Input
Amino acid sequence: MADAVHPAAIEHLPGFVTQPGESDWLFTAVAVFLLAAILMIGNFYFQIHALPERMAHRTKKVQMEIVAVLALISLFTHNHIFWIFGLLLAFVDLPDFSTPLSSMARSLERLSGRTPPVEDPVVVTLVPKPKSDPVGGGI
Output
């Protein structure tokens, strides 16, 4: 009696129509496919989103940190202009201004006859205070 088809149904039912009490294989297949597709698309999105940070690893530390902060701001605020700025900043090699300026400062100090002040290392010794017990003559 379980194999009896309802009298209003057609003779040949499609394969995706299941009998009562059986599992729906089409639903299961679509659910697995949808879950796999969401995970793959999410992975691809995060790989593309991390592109400026990967490119900035070959640059200076400060520039890499700025690019990483811009990428995080873009991720959390959904303002993609920050991602574009981070990508452009990762492409551009910022010049080093501090090395020539410090070299000029050292040369000017030598030319002027001044010697740079040598800072003595400060030695700090901590002497523990004897603990006093306010209640009694503690140890």
Observations:
- The CA atoms of residues 129 and 135 lie 18 Å apart.
- The first helix runs from residue 25 to 49.
- The chain has a mean pLDDT of 81.
- The helical segments are 25-49, 51-56, 61-77, 80-91, 98-112.
